[in-house]
Amino acid sequence: MLSDFLTWCYPWTKALHILAVISWMAGIFYLPRLFVHHAEKGVEQVHSDEMLQMMELKLLRVIMNPAMIATWIFGIMLALTPGIIDWGAIWPYAKFASVGGLTWFHHWLGKRRKDFANGANVVSGRTYRMMNEVPTLLLVIIVVAVVVRPF
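^ that's the sequence the OP posted. Answer follows.
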């Protein structure tokens, strides 16, 4: 039965979820910083532009995309594990909404990478710096919701 399997593998699922989240967050914090450099200095020199585009593409495809998918898969497995989530509380919905926000931000970054690749970036380095605060705020909400469960 699925619930027995999920209960049996709960510690591994939780560990893999945490590892995936850490990997995803590392990319979510780093990619906008690459965009800051790309927007401010990278387009001036062809070599810098090419190198930044390669770094951005590999970060997104090799690290961030698999980590986001793994985060969602293991997160759903945790949510389906009997007795782990009190669905009468507000915290799981706050976490889910925040993870949705991180997923939106991930896709926004993917679209910005394509803009750089097409030579069509119109976003300033300052805007990338400000947008880099979005995942920080969402991460705080997620950690407090899950660990403190204040609501």
